[in-house]
Structures are given as C-alpha cells and as structure tokens.
Amino acid sequence: MKRIAIVWSEFEQHGIACALHVNARTLKDFERWADFVRQRNEIGIISYEFITGAGKKARRQFHIDGLRKIAQSADRPLDIIVRGDPDVTAHLQRDFRSVIYIDTMAYMKTIKRQRATRVSNSKLDWITTKTKVPSEVDDMLEHNLGEQGLFLRGRFYGQDAASVQR
Predict the structure, then answer these.
(1) Could you give the 3-state DSSP secondary structure of residue 33?
(2) Which of 40, 77, 153, 166 could serve as 159's disulfide partner, Cβ 3.0–4.6 Å?
(3) Residue 53, beta-bridge partner list
(4) DSSP code, position 101
C-alpha cells in the first residue's frame, strides 16, 4: 500500500494525471484505503482490476462492497476506472460519480484473428477468420473496437446502438 501511495503521489506532484490503484485483498486493506482516500481531498479517481483474485465469482462481491465503502466514506464524489469483468460496472455506478471501464477484449480477439458479429443486439459472437495482408488486421481491430464499444455502452451505460456515435 505504501509503495502504491508513494508512486501515485510522485505522479501527482509532477503533473501526471493518474488514478490511485487501491489494491486490496482483505477487509483491513479496504479500511486502510478508505482512510487514506478520505484524508486526501486531492484523490478524485481510483482504479481497480477484476481479472485475477477480484475477478473470481466467489470473491467479486467482496471487492465490490469494499470499493463501495471507499466511495461512501470519501464524503465527496469519486470516479473509478475498472478493468476486467464488465458486469461490475452496474454495481459500482450507485456509489461512484462515474465508472470508466477499460476493455481489452476487442484487441485480444483481433490478435487471435476473431471478428465480432452481433447477435440480435444482445451479445457478440467472435468468428475466427483468416487474414491475407497486415492491413486486414487493422480493419478488423477498428471493426472489433466499434462493435465491442457499442455492445458495452448498450449493456452497461444504457445507450442503444442507434444513439451512440462512433
């Protein structure tokens, strides 16, 4: 925790925009982060990842609850950046001013030469394709980013595909 706080502080002191990554595994970790954030009004945005430990279904709610307590105890609006499981965004929107989700799915699927195909606007299928020239990968990435963005906006941010501009 100390190392994370020092690096965050040094970034801030040098004018580098950053989010405080509140890495926590225990209830005590969340309590300590809540105290740290509450005492420092300069903290307006935190980050968290739901890929490794926090991404496991059995532990996900524990981490969501801990993050919500940090937001509630801050006594000011906080934003959060989340990476990993997009389903957590709905749970965090109640207590954070904004929830920013970072998605890597479109990039990873493109690397594996899979193209997004919409299934009745309720999900995406990823179809394996072959590419002949490198520019086809660029086109596929642009397509996948667009489709994944529309899908996530519609599912988690209440915007339908017709209202979202690329």
Answers:
(1) helix
(2) 153
(3) none
(4) E
Token representation of residue 146: 């667009």
**pLDDT tens track, the chain, 166 positions:** 999 999 999 999 999 999 999 999 999 999 999 999 999 999 999 999 998 777 777 788 999 999 999 999 999 999 999 998 888 998 999 999 999 999 888 999 999 999 999 887 678 999 999 988 878 899 999 999 999 988 888 887 775 544 444 3
Alpha-carbon gap, residue 39 to 6, rounded angstroms:
15
Residue 46 to residue 129: CA distance in whole angstroms = 38
Closest alpha carbon to 29 in 54, 9, 10, 1: 1
Burial class (CB in 10 A: 0-12, 13-18, 19+), 115: buried
pTM, 2 dp: 0.80
